[in-house]
Amino acid sequence: MFLIGVIAFAVLSLTAFWIKPKYIHLFELLAIWFSVTAVNSPIYSFFLVNKQWITVPDNKELSLIRIIYTELICPLIITWILDESLAVKHAILRYLCYLVTLAILFLAGFALHLLGVIHFSSVGMFWYTPFKAIPLIIALFSVRCIRYLMRKDGIYYESTKY
Amino acid sequence: MGYIMSQQNINLCFNIVFFLSGVYLVYRLPQRLPITVTFLIMNMSLAIALGLDHTIGAPPIDLYDTNIEPWLTLTEILTWGMYPISGYLYIYLYDKLKVRGYFVPLFILCWSTFGTVFEELAKTFKVFVYKDWAIRYSFLIYLFTQLLTTIVFKILMRTYQKTKGKEGFS
Predict the structure, then answer these.
(1) Is B61 close to A37, i.e. CB distance below 8 A?
(2) ipTM surpassing 0.90
(3) How close, in Å, is residue B100 to chain A by CA atoms?
């Protein structure tokens, strides 16, 4: 039942994101999504296998939930928030949005811990948010890269909201 | 211990040779595609491959390991570097050969077969160590991945052509 709920949540969130008005270019959105997915996946292995900061139950349903979170929900959260925040002109507001992103990711990780999908050790819980900042930083870096490359390719796109 | 060390060295050599050859090939090929599209296709290839390696290739599903050890090692970086190169070469050839119509599935089939053969070779050099995995599953994964790459490439090119030169497009 829990798995069904997570799948339904992921599908509906993706649909909502699909239909909502976007403030940044498709190339920027894809750059964020792909970068987050690429960085997020090895972090899990690093936590689980290298450092053993988390343990996972031997349950296929729970592992599917974790996969959906890592591969769909987490990139979606970061892409959605960056789509809203990168178009904001005020730097302080933008930085606040980044902090909110980290807070949401921490809460999501903590929720997975409470629900038994993953079990954090105390060290793992401590390092979770700093490590989760890496996908966010890489996403911001990839946006910079793609904007530079877009200008080189002759695509001029001003993404502004406020 | 000596056996493991020699296996690790062979594995490392395989990774270095193919990574550097791939980088050289990409560097030497004339630029055909927009840099943005190239960047995104490479990024996507990396995301899909790492996504699979660290979900179905990690506990508790754990169908296979990469580069002998189950944990992350520095050798992984070379293997990761090969994924964007293969994605780029696929799209480069797709564009260069002007694959259209019924040749698209044929091209996908050929590249998936090539990918499967290359993976078999990589398996010999312990780049992939199968547990509950088989090469025939990889063929299917390649088939879906190439199809997805082709679709994304078409969308990217259409968007590129639509937005190029337009100022303040929204």
Answers:
(1) no
(2) yes
(3) 24
